[in-house]
Amino acid sequence: MIPAATSAEIDLAIDSAVQRISDRAARLGDGFCVLGEAIARAASGGKRLRPALVVASFHAFGGDEAQLPTVYRVAAAFELLHTAFVVHDDVIDHDLIRRGIPNVGGEFRLRALTAGASPGGAATLGDAAGILAGDLLLHEAGRLIATSDATSHAREALFGLLDDAVFVSAAGELADVENAVVPDLAEDAALIAAARDKTAVYSFSAPLQAGAVLADADEASIAALGDAGARIGLAFQLVDDLIGAFGTADQAGKEEGGDLREAKRTPLIAFARQTAAWSRVNDALAVAHTGPIAIREAQEALEASGARTRLRELIDDTLAGAGKHSAAPELPVAARMLLQDLCVRIQERIP
Asked: Per-residue pLDDT for the chain (351 aa), expressed as one digit of tens each?
């Protein structure tokens, strides 16, 4: 999506922000020093999709290259926002592993157990570390924008995007948890809305719009980006739901079938509930937490129910709608091509 040289500049901006957290934490005690190091590991690697979108959108709108240092700083802010949400999400989901190694919470649980804490005490420390790490990352994301060299008008617009991203994502995350613990609470439309809200704004609409803001795009173009980004983001999240149920551990970044093991109520599960095969699916999901064999049975039951096919059809329809919005006449040709490329890339992720 962007050249390697630009990727290196994005990495440098992110690493600089994370290093600032680590340096400050090192002066505030051993535990906080370890937390700073854990944050640095949490922020390392990954696809860096969101910062790439900021930069790609800036270029698509013909932004002045003299502004690139500011663009990279804002791009880094969106990556730290993503990392914050991931760290908090791991706490909410009680996950201890991320990308095959202990995450922030998992690391601090091990640290506590090694020091002689009880299992309950270790869990408390792990959760606290995860929450605080996410808080620090959220703070740093805002600070990067606040101290950027963007014009006051652009900074105000960027803060509006960040504000909306945080609020909508939090609403989506809460709805997602509610839907999991109160199975009959939400209708299918609400499940799809939660899937959209938890990802679409902060992962697609806001980064794309941020790049356009920094390129001094007009309001109509920025609004068009938001509409297209919302649909692309929904498709992305629905594909993630498929990956969470059917993808490999490498694709999911955690155990294969993790969403089934955690009994998440996703649109995939909602579709299965509407079929005559629901009894078999429900029985399989009830024991999916017991291990790989049970996970495989749940996958086979979902496949047989037709739910996987229906979700793929919904993804296809959502991407088709995104494609139409990507052709909005307000957008320059380069921006349309960027959005269409995103649709293709999401299609290629489907397991």
From this structure: 555 557 889 999 999 999 999 999 999 999 999 999 999 999 998 889 999 999 999 999 999 999 999 999 999 999 999 999 999 999 998 888 887 789 999 999 999 999 999 999 999 999 999 999 999 999 999 999 999 999 999 999 999 999 999 999 999 999 888 887 776 655 677 878 888 899 999 999 999 999 999 999 999 999 999 999 999 999 999 999 999 999 887 776 667 888 888 777 788 988 998 899 999 999 999 999 899 999 999 999 999 999 999 999 999 999 999 999 999 999 999 999 999 999 999 999 998
**Containing H/E element for 9?**
helix 4-26
Q: pTM for the whole thing?
A: 0.91
The interaxial angle of helices 333-349 and 49-60, nearest 10 deg, is 160
Asked whether 185 and 179 are in contact (CB, 8 A), the reply is yes
Which of 15, 31, 254, 217 is CA-nearest to residue 132? Answer: 31
Is residue 50 within 8 A of residue 202, CB to CB? The reply is yes
DSSP state of 263: T
CB-CB contact of 63 with 125 (8 Å): no
The residue among 111, 135, 138 whose CA lies nearest residue 122 is 111
H or E segment and range at residue 101: strand 101-102
Q: What burial class does residue 38 get, using C-beta atoms within 10 Å of its C-beta: 0-12 exposed, 13-18 middle, 19+ buried?
A: buried
C-beta of residue 340 within 8 angstroms of C-beta of residue 326: yes
d(CA 214, CA 253): 32
Sign of CA dihedral 127, 128, 130, 135: positive
Structure tokens belonging to residue 235:
């498709």
